[in-house]
Amino acid sequence: MIAPRKVVSAPMTWSLAVGLMATAAGCGGGDSSNSVAVPATPAATAPASNATAPVAAPSSSDQPGNSPVASVPSPTSKAAAKPVDSQKTAEARAAFQLLTQPGTEGPAWDAAQQKLVTLGADATPVLVDGLKSSNPIERETAATICALSGAADKDLQKVLTACLSDESSFVRANAAASLAQIPEHQTEVISTLTSLLADSDPQLRRMAAANLGAFGPEASGELPKLTAVLADNDTEVVTPVIQLLGRIGPQAVNAVPQLQKIAHEQDGEIKQAAEQALLLIQTDTEEAIEPKK
Question: For 46, what's the count of Cα atoms within 13 Å in the CB-facing half-sphere?
């Protein structure tokens, strides 16, 4: 299905990415009620249970074809300033241009996105340029592709790290999803995802919570913010955070009162998550750690 700002699940080991999707009238059965701030149906199936797939973040326009988008230089124009693109990199540049230019719809948009994902390392120079662009749609598009295809390249990782402070929350979300599997970036990624738990967009909050499912005790530095999330009314945000608190273990002792309240008052998955988290947190907690007054 094709719709603007959809949450898509990438078939990756354990990180979720909020994916930029093209808008095509009548294409793919997208719900016209979806706004740019509300991602919709996943484009792919997320890994089950504990395996969280990277959730990526969409473009800043409801209708990519109707939004003012800075044109992307053609491969020949780039050749004067940089080494000539390889054939595959030139293909990636052409695909990226299709994604960010007005008028690209339906199958053409979908094929261009898949082309960039499939080209992998050959698309890296194009993605680096996109992430550095002054145009937010180009940055969001590039960050989405990175979240879907990974970020093994060191130069790409460097640019993505800078994107963790981008003014666009969708760029930040996808940059975090892209870097989530790289141990040396875990601290920045966890901080970015935790901050997104307070975003005004409910789908970005859900994405951030799902992506935090990749972590455990290493997220203990964010405990005050994670505990505050327990007051959120969205169970799709709260349940993954409860599960994370359980994985953090006894250090999350200050969340116990709220977890007990959820366990007593709620039903279903969130109740089970709270009960399991309490078991994990309270193991040796009474002897080892006292709640802070």
Answer: 24
